[in-house]
Design a protein that fits this description.
It is built from 8 helices and no strands. By secondary structure, it is mainly α. The protein has 2 domains: about 130 residues; about 150 residues. The radius of gyration is 26 Å and the shape is flat. The mean pLDDT is about 85.
Length: about 280
Amino acid sequence: MPNDAKDQLLTLNHEIRKTESYLKIARRRRKWSDISFVFGPVVLALLYATWWIPHISHRLLLIIYAPALCVALLFAVATIKLKLTPGGPPEGSLRIDHARKRDSEYALELQLARQRDSRKELAARADTPITVRRIAYKDDAFTDIDKFRAESARYRSVNNALQGVLIIGSLAATGSAALTAEVPDIRWATIGITFLVGIASGFIGYFKYKERSFYLQQTADAIESEWEAVEVGVGRYKTIEDEGKRLAEFVEEVHRLKSEQKKRQQNLEQPPESRSSQEQ
């Protein structure tokens, strides 16, 4: 493979990684804009419903409304900001007279698709040797590790948040139920807390956030272990002296780990009754 083709391939790989990071930012901003757009009206609806609760004191209303209105205002500001400026990171220097341009999520997806097609054409045109492709696959393994660990951390955060709601809500519901006889108005809080606990329990049981996080972290650790083993020549690579055979063994093992992770992910995404029937 000529050196100029190798340099072009390396440059193109760098551009693809940069576009992928920009696309990830755009999708994250869109997700938070949708969350803000939904939860803002939900908070206002809950405040409106609280206003019509019979025999509720004005002092308790003030305690509820003061922080809740601030939260609703923050959701409104975030919604306006993110909906008016969608896309990836801003381009150019910060200026007061006009907003900086952002590439839309759709434009970034098209750009990423074109770059990947260009990489395939370049690799085919340059007749890339299989060893070079395996080396590129080995270098991309760390990208897979970071991706799996980021997804694992996200699922773990969701699971921890729902577990916190479940634990704190259960204790709060028990305490508020004990005080219902002395403070009748608190029964509405008990109903709301019980409702939240039920939602958290249902989400944990159906979506299996803990299992998703565990399998992703397990796959990332296994790929990292293989990467370190092939680098220093230990484990299964101790008796393989040829570097090409080491790369071939490494690529085969990483491909197997990623395939198993996809199968586990597909199994977790199926309904619980389908999972139980398959296990039987």
